[in-house]
Amino acid sequence: MDEYEDFIKKIIVKAGKLTLTYFGKVGVDHTKAGGVNDVVTIADVKTQTLIVNAIRKRFPKHGIIGEEDAKINTDAEYIWYIDPIDGTRNYSKSIPIYGVMIALAKNDEIIISSIYMPITKELYFAKKNNGAYLNNKRITCSKFKTFIDSNGCISALWHKKRKKIHNSIMKTIQNGSIYISTLGSMAVNGGMVSDGRKDWIISESSGIWDYAAPSLILAEAGCKVTNLKGEKWTLKDRQMVAANPILHADIIKMIKE
């Protein structure tokens, strides 16, 4: 595990520095299936290539799944999950809200992960059963216990399929209020919930790379991490709810009603 820790910390910072060399200089190179909301820059491709090459050199028998069409040896015992730039739409508009995410799974269980914010130089790291850290300092999630007056994060992309969740939130707060951020980056959202700056997150996405790294960091910071049904989050899920156990129970109840 020490070998993986040393590797992931070094390569994610190196990748983050590479994104900075392109930041503010490149726009959208092309779009994927999601159209205007699913964009790719040359920096995404270059950054993922850097990470993939480093993994293949250091751990040639490991598998890799990366956002930019990287699928290598996906039946391997160890698989790396990569999101080279999480928040690409922000990045392509020179909005400094994005992060690099890398996680390693053994037999479909995340055992080590990291998130790096190149702009703010914030390095999140977690190892299974060893806590979560921000720049080498132990972090814990928020202890806030009520949904009313809480400060949370929700997926930036809104559409009709998410109407039920939005309606549930409005019904729950009624005459009260909450503060919600839609930052367009699971890396940033997940980081801030894990270190207690935000109280909760409700997220839906199509990519496992959006959740692999934050899932472990959030859990090791003391969050309960599940899918929208309240079931323990796994690599098969493309949605996530995370908060301290008391607040999490209220959120799941709200979603189910």
List keywords for this structure.
257 residues; alpha+beta; D-Maltodextrin-Binding Protein, domain 2; 8-stranded mixed beta sheet
Polypeptide structure, described:
By secondary structure, the chain is of the alpha+beta class. It folds into two domains: 2-139, 2-Layer Sandwich (Fructose-1,6-Bisphosphatase, Chain A, domain 1); 151-256, D-Maltodextrin-Binding Protein, domain 2 (3-Layer(aba) Sandwich). 33% of the residues lie in helices and 29% in strands. It has seven helices and 15 strands. It has helices spanning 2-22, 42-58, 88-92, 163-173, 186-194, 212-220, 245-256, and strands at 30-32, 35-40, 63-66, 70-72, 78-86, 99-106, 109-117, 122-127, 132-134, 137-139, 151-154, 179-181, 200-204, 224-226, 239-243. The strands form three sheets. Strands 4-3-5-6-7-8-9-10 form an eight-stranded mixed beta sheet, with helices on both faces. The protein has a five-stranded mixed beta sheet with strand order 12-11-13-15-14, sandwiched between helices. Strands 1-2 form a two-stranded antiparallel ribbon. The chain starts with a helix and ends with a helix. The model has no long low-confidence stretch (mean pLDDT 93).
Short description:
It is built from seven helices and 15 strands. It has two domains: 2-139, Fructose-1,6-Bisphosphatase, Chain A, domain 1 (2-Layer Sandwich), CATH 3.30.540.10; 151-256, 3-Layer(aba) Sandwich (D-Maltodextrin-Binding Protein, domain 2). It has an eight-stranded mixed sheet with strand order 4-3-5-6-7-8-9-10, sandwiched between helices. Strands 12-11-13-15-14 form a five-stranded mixed sheet, sandwiched between helices. A two-stranded antiparallel sheet has the order 1-2.
